[in-house]
Automatic annotation (TrEMBL):
Enzyme class: transferase
InterPro entries: Alg10
Broad class of the protein's primary localization: endoplasmic reticulum
Location in the cell: Endoplasmic reticulum membrane
One Gene Ontology term from the biological process aspect of the record: dolichol-linked oligosaccharide biosynthetic process
UniProt family annotation: Belongs to the ALG10 glucosyltransferase family.
Protein name: Dol-P-Glc:Glc(2)Man(9)GlcNAc(2)-PP-Dol alpha-1,2-glucosyltransferase
Keyword Plastid attributed: no
Chain ranges passing through the membrane: 6-25, 60-81, 93-118, 130-150, 156-183, 249-270, 290-312, 324-348, 368-385, 392-413, 433-456
Pathway note: Protein modification; protein glycosylation
A molecular function (GO) term: dolichyl pyrophosphate Glc2Man9GlcNAc2 alpha-1,2-glucosyltransferase activity
Function of the molecule: Dol-P-Glc:Glc(2)Man(9)GlcNAc(2)-PP-Dol alpha-1,2-glucosyltransferase that operates in the biosynthetic pathway of dolichol-linked oligosaccharides, the glycan precursors employed in protein asparagine (N)-glycosylation. The assembly of dolichol-linked oligosaccharides begins on the cytosolic side of the endoplasmic reticulum membrane and finishes in its lumen. The sequential addition of sugars to dolichol pyrophosphate produces dolichol-linked oligosaccharides containing fourteen sugars, including two GlcNAcs, nine mannoses and three glucoses.
Length: 473
């Protein structure tokens, strides 16, 4: 980090933390008691604070990483400043842990951006810093910095895991991946993604060697849409994964991740499933439209950095050149939407969440709406892939497989599940111009301001309950 860039980044970190503290103070004053899922998380963390590690709330479905981390931070502070009474492990004290995670997330985002865009070092200091700041205020993630949810800690450890992978510290990466899994079991997918990037790097090297021998100009960054190109890649994958030397080379590097995978499989066998606690409302299914929802979500939040006139024009030209391919893709999407759309009862019943209104005001307007949106899904998916075309083919394949695993089995449409895949997507886009980054930051700030204002000021009550209800992600 250059000296001047270091000063700017430190100043922005301090300003970000100060603003977050002021917002935290306001939110905590208006909502002193635990809200929504906080009721279970706070109650469980307080049991840990009092040393009751053998008591567990059956409504909690995640491992105790959040509570262990909270107690690990709070207890030493309480001992140092000699705090006693209700302030120890209070709701406000527990929520504050997520503000600390937010500071860490900002720093990790900056380090990852520096590592991923190493070749763009010249004259990009302001763009790197602003990218990190903007992504740390990503609305869905930023909102949960002020409540006691698992999202901030989960995201922190996944980003930390990936950073260590980028630096080749695979033992440290695997250990951090275990911490991430303790916050949310589905993070095993993103630990697997870290391992997959190691395999993808080996494949890239082998592919380049083979293509240079064949004097083929095609790089691994190009996605072969032709039938012969796909066949060639499939043949290469089969040969690579069945060649002893390649498997040995990958295993020697990726063995820490393999140990994590073995440990996780053992946990699933002993636990008789991935979910602990209440399993009835967390059943897996093949909800393929979840992938379409994610592409739409990614398009909306990346509009300032990914969308432009030339890209839209290129999409139209692609449609014109390959109409049969896109007709086939559209037909497949129609089939998936028709046969594999699942709607969780929480989505239809809980009017405190924004997805409830998205579903009610868009998808429930008419049966045909979910099919009418397919062209938009196709464009969102194309835009998603086009922004990642600078990455290697095998990295893209690894990311898409993990994206499928992270989204499709989820029955509930929950924007929080999109946080990690969106951040990874955005981090791997080419570094946007300063103007685009400013527009992205303004978009995120506007959405944050709106959602926090609504949460604080636009309260309501259910007819059968005197409790104050608030709108949230």
């Amino acid at each position: 980090m250059e000296k001047f860039e270091g000063y700017i980044f430190t100043a922005l970190c301090s300003t970000n933390f100060l603003v977050s503290c002021l917002l935290f103070s306001k939110i905590t004053r208006v909502q002193r008691e635990p809200y929504m899922d906080e009721i279970f998380h706070v109650r469980q963390a307080q049991k840990y604070c009092y040393g009751k590690f053998n008591e567990w709330d059956p409504m909690i479905t995640t491992l105790p990483g959040l509570y262990l981390a909270s107690v690990g931070v709070i207890k030493p502070v309480v001992w140092l400043v000699d705090l006693t009474g209700k302030v120890v492990c209070s709701t406000a004290m527990l929520r504050f842990i997520n503000l600390l995670f937010n500071c860490g997330i900002l720093y990790l985002l900056y380090l990852i951006i520096c590592k991923l865009h190493l070749k763009e070092k010249t004259k990009t200091a302001s763009r790197r810093v602003l990218s990190a700041l903007s992504l740390s205020t990503f609305p869905v993630l930023y909102f949960f910095n002020f409540l006691y949810y698992t999202d901030a800690g989960s995201t922190f450890f996944i980003l930390f895991t990936y950073l260590m992978t980028l630096y080749g510290c695979h033992k440290a990466s695997a250990l951090l991946g275990v911490f991430a899994i303790f916050f949310r079991q589905t993070n095993i997918i993103w630990v697997a993604f870290c391992a997959a990037t190691v395999v993808a790097n080996k494949m890239d090297e082998t592919w380049r060697t083979e293509q240079s021998k064949k004097k083929d100009d095609k790089s691994p960054c190009q996605i072969p849409f032709s039938v012969s190109g796909v066949r060639r890649v499939m043949r290469f994958l089969l040969e690579f994964l069945t060649t002893a030397n390649h498997v040995k080379a990958v295993t020697l590097v990726a063995w820490p991740y393999i140990l994590v995978a073995v440990g996780f499989i053992t946990f699933i066998v002993l636990n008789d499933g991935i979910v602990i606690g209440d399993r009835t409302n967390h059943e897996a299914c093949l909800n393929f439209p979840q992938l379409f929802y994610f592409f739409s979500f990614a398009l909306f939040f990346s509009i300032p950095t990914s969308l432009c006139y030339h890209r839209a024009l290129r999409f139209l030209q692609t449609l014109k050149k390959q109409p049969l391919l896109y007709l086939l893709i559209t037909g497949l999407c129609l089939l998936l939407v028709w046969k594999f759309t699942f709607v969780h009862k929480y989505l239809l019943a809980d009017n405190r969440h924004f997805p409830f209104y998205v579903w009610k005001r868009i998808f429930q307007k008419h049966e045909a709406v979910r099919f009418a949106l397919i062209p938009a899904y196709v464009f969102a998916a194309w835009n998603f892939m086009d922004t990642l075309k600078s990455r290697s083919l095998f990295w893209i394949l690894a990311f898409l497989v993990c994206l499928l695993a992270a989204t499709v089995p989820q029955k509930l449409l929950e924007f929080r599940y999109f946080i990690v895949p969106y951040l990874l997507y955005r981090l791997h886009m080419p570094l946007p111009s300063l103007t685009r980054l400013v527009l992205e930051f303004l978009l995120y700030t506007a959405v944050n301001a709106a959602t926090l204002y609504i949460f604080v000021n636009k309260t309501f009550q259910w007819p059968n309950s005197p409790a104050v209800q608030r709108f949230m992600w």
